[in-house]
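Re: the pair you flagged

First of the two:
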Amino acid sequence: MKTVQPILIVGIGGSAGALNAYKALLNAMPHDTGMAFVVISHMLPTAHSQLTKILSRHTKMSVLLASDEMPIHANHVYIMPPDSDLTVENYKLKLISPRTGRNKQVDLFFISLAEAMGVRAVGIILSGYDGDGTAGCKHIKANGGKTFAQDSSAEVGNMPLSAQAAGCVDFVLPLDKIPDTLKSLAAELET
């Protein structure tokens, strides 16, 4: 089976209340979009995360725990491990462990995604406290990519509202509407 580079790499950032959002988003997402998805979630460094196992029940895509130098393929979901930072370079994931700071993992990943992918970068901010992801969304927009924020359905609205208040969000949508918008963005890049 030939592996294909993704049309878009979609970073999905969340924190408190984001588990249900991740599940709902993957439930709504077709398994054959030609995109890759990278889930960046705030976790305690000592967490024994079951996120990969949990999310694999909500999509037909392959769901993998990210590792250093892991190639990014279309129609795959990558999960950031606890106590690490994740970046992207040349369609590969770079893992930094232990993490360099607390609750800045979304910004770090989104900034590297913006620099590596330009117009092929997408950032989605889901439920969570604080403002992680806002600076990253600014970088994605500045490099020609697109940004999303979960609408008022977010269990904890701070992260999506912070990005919206900074004026760096292209789409504020309920989770079940994000897949169609992503498909439209990918189709524009393919023409």
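Second of the two:
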Amino acid sequence: MEKKKSLKTFFKIMGIILVAIVIGLLTYLGDYYHADTVAHEALISDNLVTVEEQGNLTIFSPADKEIDQGFVFYPGGKVEAIAYAPLMRSLAQEGFTTVIVGMPFNLAVFNADGANEAMEALPEITTWFIGGHSLGGAMASDYVAGNPEKLAGLVLMGAYPNTTLAQTDITVLSLYGSEDGVLNREAFEQAKEKMPTDVSYQEITGGNHGNFGNYGEQEGDGIALISAPEQQAITVEKIKDIMGGKIDETGK
């Protein structure tokens, strides 16, 4: 009798613990940074850029142009994907098709191969670059490590690779803000050993971690000395340089 009572108590306690874990997990996953008004406005098509939603993808295409170069983007962890719409729209205005990959629970670890969706949706794109912010950058680097033949380059924004890319001949651009309070600087330095030969590090003076996107202040981040539009404009110019240079080199 006592044994049955003990088992009943045990299962009751375990049930309470399980419910608490589930509630805690759902609370964690449901707490994320939301895109601001500027980001939502960047989703409206005009005579310069056409914006289209295709399932998990948000596609920004230069209007009235045939484009064969594309940039696929992985959002930062716990950040609403469309928070990066202004950045991707600005790059599209420079003549490149850009694609934001939506992530389950706003975490790129659950869709590290999401670039495949973009490539399948846009078979007309013959030269692909990939990039990502923070956790999204780490997952983008994992994708590169497993699929180097599919890509011409990788752009990391406030991020560093998990997996070594030293064996690849991929071109890497690493962008980070001087005021970034989120980026783990020690891990960032150690990760330089994982980079391929063709890598460029570009510090954005006055930039921070969160201003690569449009989702407000991020906990633990430094105070930016330049605005989000200024940081994103610099980012677009740096990406444009690497994409244009790589395309010229390959003849694509």
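The beta strands are 49-54, 57-62, 69-74, 97-101, 127-133, 153-157, 171-177, 199-204.

-B.
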